[in-house]
Amino acid sequence: MRTNDFDFDLPENLIAQHPPSSRGQSRLLHMNNGVLDDGQFADFPQKMQSGDVLVLNDTRVIKARLFGLKQSGGKVEVLIERILNEHEALAQVRASKSPIAGSFLRLADALDVKVLGREGEFFHLLFLSDAPLLMLLERHGNLPLPPYISHAAEKEDEARYQTVFAREAGAVAAPTAGLHFDNAMLQVLAAKGVKICYVTLHVGAGTFQPVRAEYVHEHVMHSERYEIPESTVDAIRTAQAAGGRVVAVGTTSLRALESAAVSEGGFRAGSSETRIFITPGFKFRVVDVLLTNFHLPKSTLLMLVSAFGGVDEIRAAYQHAIKHAYRFFSYGDAMLIERKIVTSS
């Protein structure tokens, strides 16, 4: 497959720059084996059945963006990719000239940071403070909005670019399918008999990177850490045994579940790193239904949903969404995809 097979033209005015006035006021495009149904996200509970398991990603977005100066006086922008411990992190560093190992940065006019070296595309940074890094970021950092959102983070974003169930700090991008839910809808779903469970996958900035290789198989996937609790595994096994469905909220929840399923030892609780790259032809082992937003052209996430719903079906759905002015990307509308049933000839 060529990367260009997953390209499409998107009018700029369809890129959502702000969330709807309240959670849950988005539109919902439901796709079942290529059949499309336009609706509202408020309809989502009607799509669920008693005995279904709804899996949410409870990661919390950290204030991972910092601005400052190098020793030379040159400007620098730091985006924390992953916190390693209370004082060290891997980060993207943007500057006119990359800092060298052993040099120092002054960030937010408050934080002294030593550059320890590089690990691939990331810089290994040591924060020279007694305070824990998470506390420093909360105090001095900025919310890292996606590159396609044109405004700097505002008070609205600090509330709305975070799910209502976010609790495990560590992501630099929100699991955006979860942004549609408010607590009232979660209560409605629970009352209906839908079992609500959680995984944690800390979303990295690599989620926004387009695939630049000419052929899909040449792309090197970024790594993300995930954790699946025993209670979620038990709920999924119970539902599967009773004929219930596993509904993943977001590609991040799906990636965590399917990563565990293909790992050595099979589907079980625990934590691990994943570089899973889901492309058409992938055999899904856990997830039956996927709730997700509309994704960027040539992105690994568009390839994932094409694997789940069918390449031709997703292409047609995206053209339908563009024609009917659905809002795209993080603050945009939602799509509910039933896993494509592949029949053998």
Description:
The protein is an alpha/beta fold. The chain folds into 2 domains: 3-61 and 156-338, QueA-like (3-Layer(aba) Sandwich), CATH 3.40.1780; 65-140, Beta Barrel (Thrombin, subunit H). The protein is 21% helix and 28% strand. It has 8 helices and 17 strands. The protein has a 9-stranded mixed beta sheet. Helix 7 (300-309) packs across helix 8 (311-323). It is globular. The model has no long low-confidence stretch (mean pLDDT 95).
Offer a concise description of the structure:
The protein is α/β, with parallel strands linked by helices. It has helices at 44-47, 133-140, 155-160, 183-191, 230-241, 251-262, 300-309, 311-323, and strands spanning 27-32, 35-40, 53-57, 59-61, 65-70, 75-83, 88-95, 104-107, 111-119, 122-127, 168-171, 195-201, 224-228, 246-249, 270-274, 289-293, 334-338.
Write the layout of secondary structure elements.
Elements: E1 27-32, E2 35-40, H1 44-47, E3 53-57, E4 59-61, E5 65-70, E6 75-83, E7 88-95, E8 104-107, E9 111-119, E10 122-127, H2 133-140, H3 155-160, E11 168-171, H4 183-191, E12 195-201, E13 224-228, H5 230-241, E14 246-249, H6 251-262, E15 270-274, E16 289-293, H7 300-309, H8 311-323, E17 334-338
Parallel strand pairs: 1-17, 3-12, 3-14, 4-11, 14-16
Antiparallel strand pairs: 1-2, 5-6, 5-8, 6-7, 7-10, 8-9, 9-10, 12-13, 13-15, 16-17
Helix pairs in contact: 7-8
